[in-house]
Amino acid sequence: PGTWLIKVSSSALTDELNFEVKEVNDISTSLENQIVTVKNIGNVQYEENIEIIAEGSEKTFTFSRRSQIDPDESFNIYLYKELPDDIYDLTITNTKFKAADISIKDPRSVLDKFGDYMGAITGSFVKSTGSTTSLKPVLSLLGVIALIVVLVFIMRFSASKKGRRRREYEKQLGRETFGKIIKDKEKQLQKTEIKPRPTYRSGFGMRQESPEISDLRKKIDSDLNKHSISHDNDIEVRSTNNYASSKPEKTNGEKKGLFRMFD
């Protein structure tokens, strides 16, 4: 569109012509094999959305697609991706296109449907030509992401809770095992007879005293308490009782007597 100049020359003749080309904003639509083809037949970019109304036997569906196509460009709308299987009367609102009794049947596999669904979400994000203007794909993707986040949180929380329960169980088992060991030790100590410790003489190189020696020591202590003792060096102190000794007295010039230790 715009003002154009045409120059024509032949031999010595030359002529010029100015003319203006107006904007043509138009599209053509056609239907074949459940596919609507939209083509820009104008001379400027076509930016209006393509809105399709499909009246089925039970329900009427309305959906729109972004165009934004340059002159002589085209894009396709796959009706079997947008409509459930049924027979429809189709109308494109911004054109004169109308078609009746159009049978729609989806030939895709489950895997192909999933791939087309992800492609529709991507196209909706980037707003590409032929993508849907609806927010349903975006909202559904956000819902799936939210569901995944919730499931991951639940799994992590469940695993953490299970770990805490296991640790508590191990602690309880340890306490029970420790208590059982303590009870067994107490029972063993109760069954074990505790013998009195033997009496030892004081001093270096301690020896165990026999019962006879202990009785003799007690008698000597009793006699010493009854009689007064003189500590003069010239006086020898003897007990009035006669104590038997298994060893003979030494005769090496020392004073005789059993109790020289008390001098």
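[next item in queue]
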Amino acid sequence: AAKDLDSLQISGTPVTGIAMVADRIAEGRAAPMRSPAVNTGYGKEWIRGLAAPKLWQLSDVAMAAAIERRDGPAFVRALEWHLAAQRIYASMPPFMVGSEHAAATVRVTAEALRADGGGELALALEAAIRRQSVRPSMEAMKAEIVEWEVDGLAAWFTNPRGVVWPPWSDPPMKWQAESSGIHWVGLYWPQRQAIRAHAGALFEELMADPSDRNQQKASAAVFAIADAGPMAGARFSGVNGYASTSLDLRGALLERALATVVAIERFRRSAGRLPNSLDELRPRFVDAVPKDPWRKGPFVYRVLPADPATAWHPGYTLWSVGANGSDDDGNPVTDVVLVPAPPWPEPSAEPSTDSPAAADATRGN
């Protein structure tokens, strides 16, 4: 990582210029990044979709530079840029909120907190997380619907025939419509309103139980009601919430995991030890233990045996049960491992009770 942000560029743009904009966004003073639609010839794309990833790139570069310099305030500033981009970009691209990226961000934060001792850095991070908090909700879904409706209304003035009878409804394009999941063509507003009312109830149910099984159930139900009437399924899927819900949940996972590791370090600094379970964080360090978005309980937490050779490590593991809603003992394939165990020598025999891989009584779930 470079030692000075002044010497860095992202896609040819000096980092310092992007950083000024990022600070304004984090402070809530910038205008929304959703700009008027741009006709690219292949459909309408939002400028926001191009700008937000640059904020994440900036955050990654700046966090690496801050860690190299052991600069706590710079690390907080960089992480807040990441959270601010997440806040203003409601449906985040998978490559920015995928399990690997979220886990890496949480792991680096946990290690930075450990190196700092959970003092001023923990308090600053706690404030940043609170300022940029993201809560997937029905209100966010309704706002998304309004924006889509305004865009649809504007389309009437530019190409009314295309709105009612889109190009893919022509017989030669039928195969493309089917491959795109468009079950009915046309945009008939009364039917859309009825479908949306039903989809809203499904969305609320999904937010209450975001397990993979319930996601599949809600998705099937949405497509079933889309099939019941004239509806452009491809356009419908993006405005009712269910299609982007898994992305929203990943965003919530990152925020809640960061809040958890901050509270753990504050507890350690106060008590001189790690909490035996996440329940010990209440009520002094959190009002309520942050919940794993993929289930109704907290993240899975385990304290590791002390090892002088890994003093740099936070000393615990933390993971989410993932989309399947099942705790698979920290399996990196099915669970989202947020703070992994440090590398350990290959055991020459069966794992003992002292092994970090062995189950213990410190599980926080």
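[queue empty]
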